[in-house]
Amino acid sequence: MRAREFEFKRQVNKLGQPVDRGEWEMTPQTVNAYYSPEMNEVVFPAAILQPPFFDVNADDAVNYGSIGAVIGHEISHGFDDEGSQYDGDGNLHDWWTKSDHDKFNIRTKALVAQYGAFSPLEGYQLNGELTLGENIADNSGLPIAYKAYRIALGGKPAPVIDGFTGDQRFCLGWAQVWRGKAREAETIRLIKVDPHSPPRFRGNGTLENLPAFYSAFDVKPGDKMYVPPAQRVRIW
Ligand SMILES: [Zn+2]
User: Fold this and answer.
1) What does residue 186 show for φ and ψ, rounded to 5 degrees?
2) Gap from CA of 35 to ligand 1 centroid (Å)
């Protein structure tokens, strides 16, 4: 309670003071990242820059599929339903036209339905509205990281490493980030309050929308992760 009181006072004392643009909302030891619309900045604490998110000794494909996609995720928050309400100086000023918003809403509606159909436990389904912002970010970040990876190859073919092609390693890098375990009760609690989808669906749901995943692993109709091309969602 004393820690809460201290933090409350620290925040209140900021009133009327100049904005401290050097302040972080996370500690360097936190394995996480964020985008702040008020600061118009993305922050990657030191702790996320280690495996499975980033490995200085791993090849480009794995790093683009992991930290590259996370960087894309955070940047895309500046260009979503929330980020669009803040201008470049972090002031609440919508810089999109009505037609921008309308077109964006049409694309994101499909994501609401897609994630709303995912079921982590029998009798429970994800809330496609609650998790929309984060699903938009995942489904923007991964394809953008893939584009960046292809650019980084500079037109040369990717090497095969440990029997995996570059595109396969890119997808594996993403999937490895989302390995995790939770008890049933915690999974049920989180699907009611967490704006992020459970890790399994952040990993697989995003790959199901990525055309490169299909060609990399020769995914065909009838396979568990197959989604027909017309139903795959692409935001950007
Ligand atoms: Zn996010």
Assistant:
1) -70, -40
2) 7
Q: Which is the catalytic residue, given 60, 80, 134, 138? A: 138
pLDDT confidence of residue 82? 84
Tokens 């940047």 belong to: 75
CA angle 226, 213, 110 (to 5 degrees): 55
Separation of CA 161 and ligand 1 centre (Å)? 31
The answer to whether 216 touches 233, Cβ cutoff 8 Å, is no
Active site residue 74: yes
User: Nearest-CA neighbor of 137 among 197, 63, 188?
Assistant: 197
pLDDT for 49: 97
Q: pLDDT at position 157, please?
A: 95
Which residue ranges in the chain fall short of pLDDT 70?
none
Q: Which two tokens stand for residue 207?
A: 């790959």
- Looking at residue 81, its pLDDT comes to 78
User: From the CA of 77, how far away is ligand 1's center (Å)?
Assistant: 7
- Residue in this structure with the two tokens 């584009």, named with its chain if needed: 147
Q: Which of 74, 80, 134, 167 is catalytic?
A: 74
Tell me if the bond preceding 52 is cis, omega within 30° of 0.
yes
